[in-house]
Amino acid sequence: MTDLEANVKILLKDKNQTFQQFIDSNIDFIAEHTTIGEDFKKKWEQLYKKVASELNIPVQKNRKLPSWKDVALRICNLAILTENSDCSISSLQSSSSARNSANQRVSTSIPLPSTSIDQRASTIQTPSHQSSSCSTPSTSLVAELNVQDKTNFTTIFEHLDKETFWKIPVKRQGEEENMIVIDQKIIEFAYKCNYHQYVEKFIGFSVYITGEADPSQSLILDIGDDNWKAVFSESELEDIDNFGDSLLPPIPSDMDKILNDIAKLNSPLEAYKYARSLEHDPIKEPLKAWIVVEILRASNLFLNGDDIFNSQMLEAELFYEVWGFIKNVARRSQISTNGSEGGSKSNADAMNKKRCISAIDPAPRRQMGDKIDTIFYANRKELGLIEVGKKVDQTKEMKDGLVKMPIVMHDMLINLATSKELLRKVKVVGYVINGKGYKISIAVMDSPGGFVSRIRRSNGLEYPSCSEDFIRRIVPLLRMTLAGFTMMLQTRDALVSTASNIQSLKASDSWKLPPTFIPYSPPQKNSTSKRQKTDN
After folding, report:
1. Half-sphere exposure (CA, 13 Å, Cβ side) for 139?
2. Among 270, 325, 340, 503, which residue's Cβ finds the most Cβ atoms within 10 Å?
3. What is the average pLDDT across 162-190?
4. Domain termination residue (choose one: 202, 219, 236)
5. Using one digit for the tens of pLDDT, what is the confidence trace for 271-308?
6. 326 within 8 A of 375, measured Cβ to Cβ
7. End of a domain among 200, 219, 238?
8. What's the alpha-carbon Rg for the chain, to the nearest Å?
9. Contact between residue 420 and residue 503 where contact means Cβ atoms under 8 Å apart
10. Are 439 and 387 in contact, with CB atoms under 8 Å apart?
11. Are 425 and 323 in a shared domain?
12. 181 has which bridge partners?
């Protein structure tokens, strides 16, 4: 009997456990005695049956397959902990020693730009991972950018045409006019960032890990991110926010008139009756039909004075019952929606950009794009998205709204801006719903100058809470939805009206936005199942 079998025998002795109960009560033990890359499901099933048979414990058959998610996550955490520390973790030590020697993070300095990329005046220190004790990583799986990561985005930055950087003239009272070079300031901030997050993706019994870098390393300037207050002054951020087009475009005049009429009403019942009185052709006037249906639906929720948020609705139910009008505005238009929490194709294409046919090394498996609650698209291009979060979870809101969503929007923008002409015309629209579904805000990404992808955000608008505030809250929500839809239509019109050019693959692309920066990720743990799932 092996030592591992002896340990399992001790765990099972005097305990009449099912296999699922054994898994749930010994997650750490199973993870610590699993080698990365092996078929741990098959291994532990066979081991459990063997030891249970020796102990005369009946192996109960279950119609459901065992749940391995918690074990897979623990294996993932241990792998990352081993990768980033000098700690020894049971049998994972031997399997990760080669990786640690190749990717060990040591105290290293890299050039940091002071006034320009070419003038290196100071250095950034990447701390070494010295630890006297091991601890489980946090659920956010935060990890440090290593030297190779910083070398990679340094290479990207140095190939940018500095003459075309985005410059904004700033003149304050009593001062001479000064030029702010936006790209340069973002690059300097990007060098100061030391952390990124690992994102786990489960496919079957496999765990796939991808890195999410700080948006600044992709030259994304999200004005809603408070980190930029340490880089730009309040007046500079205001100038950046006001540069070019306004955040929201005007909505169609006929819709504007209807919303102005509704704003003069006093109750959900009056809004209900007004919507019923609007004559329209649902085929020829789809937006008018949309506003009639959504006013009827929304006002009907408050006719009895009920607080709809008192009920414990699921996230999907909450979205379709309360916020469905955001998606429904695209009905019978050139814009389509995909609301099944599918992966973003633009994001998947960006992550798999360096994927090639097998040669010296085998071709890596195609990775999935980040899951999004709803994606707007037209002419095979993704134009916008909706992210929904029911629970009040600040960490999730920050991760989804300030990390995942900007990265996905950036990949969408790159996929839309296929020419220098389109680069300054196209926009990506994002809606963020969080805090138990009470509030929504709109985020708009564009590239008004240089290589920067700017994100501007609106304030959060609350959904009506009672019949008394119904009119005052529902009208701004409908205006926001129509403005976002108008931007997506304008982007589609720009796409279909721009001619394609034939050119060499090696032709200059110095005008293009830098690719989304993807940090180093630990080796993937692939399932040995013959049938493997991909993102499509």
Report:
1. 4
2. 325
3. 85
4. 219
5. 999 999 999 999 999 999 999 999 999 999 888 766 66
6. no
7. 219
8. 27
9. no
10. no
11. yes
12. 167
Residue 143, in any domain of the structure:
yes
User: What does the pLDDT average to over 83-96?
Assistant: 40
Lowest mean pLDDT among 214-218, 236-240, 281-285, 414-418: 214-218
Alpha-carbon distance of 471 to 271, in angstroms, equals 8
Task: Identify whether residues 110 and 60 lie together within a single domain.
Answer: no
Please tell me the distance from the alpha carbon of residue 43 to that of residue 40, in angstroms, as a whole number.
Answer: 5
User: Which range in 32-36, 205-209, 414-418 is most confidently predicted, on average pLDDT?
Assistant: 414-418
By residue count, the chain amounts to 536
Cα–Cα–Cα angle for 375, 369, 319, nearest 5°? 35
- Is the same domain home to 376 and 467? yes
Give CB contacts under 8 A, 24+ apart, made by 148-156: 148/103, 148/520, 149/196, 149/213, 149/519, 149/520, 150/110, 150/124, 150/126, 150/191, 151/110, 152/517, 153/190, 153/213, 153/217, 153/517, 154/110, 154/111, 154/191, 156/514, 156/515, 156/517
Q: What is the largest CA-CA distance in the chain?
A: 89
How far is CA 449 from each of CA 84, 118, 162, 173, 430, rounded to the nearest angstrom? 38, 21, 12, 26, 20
Residue 170 lies in a domain: yes
Kindly state whether residues 330 and 419 are assigned to the same domain. Answer: yes
- Tally of domains in the chain: 3
Q: Taking Cα atoms as reference points, which of 482, 75, 426 lies closest to residue 259?
A: 482
3-state secondary structure 421-464: HHHCCCCEEEEEEECCCCEEEEEEEECCCCCCEEEEECCCEECC
Pairing relationship of beta strands 220-222 and 453-457 according to DSSP bridges: parallel
User: Which one-letter amino acid corresponds to residue 32?
Assistant: E
More confident residue, 347 or 237: 237
Residue 75 lies in a domain: no
Contact between residue 411 and residue 378 where contact means Cβ atoms under 8 Å apart: no
Q: Three-state DSSP class for 381? A: strand
User: What is the C-alpha separation between 400 and 414, in angstroms, rounded?
Assistant: 20
Beta carbons within 8 Å of 285's beta carbon, 6+ residues apart: none
Per DSSP, the three-state class of 125 is: strand
- If asked whether residues 287 and 213 sit together in one domain, one would say no
Q: Residue ranges of the alpha helices (H) in 193-267?
A: 234-242, 253-263
Residues 194 and 265 in one domain: no
Phi-psi region of 141 (alpha: psi -120 to 50; beta: other; left: phi over 0): left
**Single-letter amino acid code for the residue at 54:** E
Q: What is the pLDDT of residue 414?
A: 94
Residues spanned by the domain of 10: 3-67
**pLDDT above 90: residue 193:** no
**Average per-residue pLDDT for the chain:** 75
Left, alpha or beta for 380 (phi > 0: left; psi -120 to 50: alpha)? left
Same domain, 41 and 148: no
Q: What are the structure tokens assigned to 101, written together?
A: 């020697």
- The answer to the question of residue 232 being in a domain is no
